[in-house]
Amino acid sequence: MRRPLVIAALMALACALRAGAPGTEIDPASSDWRPLLAALAARPAVAAPFTERRYFPFRRDPVELRGMLRISRERGLSLQYTGPAPSVVVADQAGILLRDADGRTRSLAAGSREAGSLSSLLPILRFDLPALSPRFEIRGQRTGDGWFLVFVPRDPALADSLGEIRVSGAGTEVRRLEFRRSAAQRIEIEVGAAQVGPAFTPDDLRRFFR
Asked: How far does Cα 74 stand from its chain's mean position?
């Protein structure tokens, strides 16, 4: 199976360097954050279109990909890329699963270097911040309905290899994800209007999860 573009992205994310995290370190149990985090964590199955832009210092313009993002409490995170090379990337408790347009798969173990950043995104998008706070410095800010959170590993060695993950949104909707190495080398994911509803169908689970 040809290595899809997402492998290159995962490797770039795994090499990310810690950047200065904006915002103020937060207490997930504080009254300012607890209701919002509880509402985000309680969402059932979520599906939303996304546009992903990958910025590299050796390219003038970013590489742009589009697809559908799906989150299941039980099955994990799924990124369905619809072009230019259709593929599905699944992040779950077992690690990362890559599936190409012909149904061929490749697995990356949960603890592997290539799986690192995307594996970390799964618990972050579950918004279980009390469980994450021993492992990550969590900084954030709220302005009206808007908010952002920045996650940086507390272990300096892990911070150097994993880098910084930023999540921002409005109300209970995630609008933007960013994996940041520098202004010139980063991955930005713009998330469209989410469909929040009951569990995915058996066909959805078969096609988009492990």
From this structure: 16
Q: Are 110 and 94 in contact (CB under 8 A)?
A: yes
pTM of the model as a whole: 0.79
- Nearest 5°: the CA angle 171, 88, 85 is 110
How would DSSP label each residue in 65-108? EEEEEEEETTTEEEEEEEESS-EEEEEETTEEEEEETTS-EEEE
- pLDDT per position as a tens digit, 178-208: 887 666 778 899 999 988 877 899 999 999 9
Each domain of the chain, given as residue ranges in start order, spans 5-193
169: number of Cβ within 10 Å: 19
* Cα separation, 123 vs 135, whole angstroms: 11
Q: Tell me the H-state helices in 32-114.
A: 34-41
- 139-169 pLDDT, tens digit per residue, is 999 998 999 999 888 888 767 766 788 999 9
CATH says 5-193 is which class?
mainly beta
Q: How far apart are CA 160 and CA 123, in angstroms?
A: 20
Q: pLDDT tens-digit profile of 26-67?
A: 877 788 888 998 998 888 789 999 999 998 888 889 999 999
Torsion of CA 194, 198, 201, 207, to 10 degrees: 40
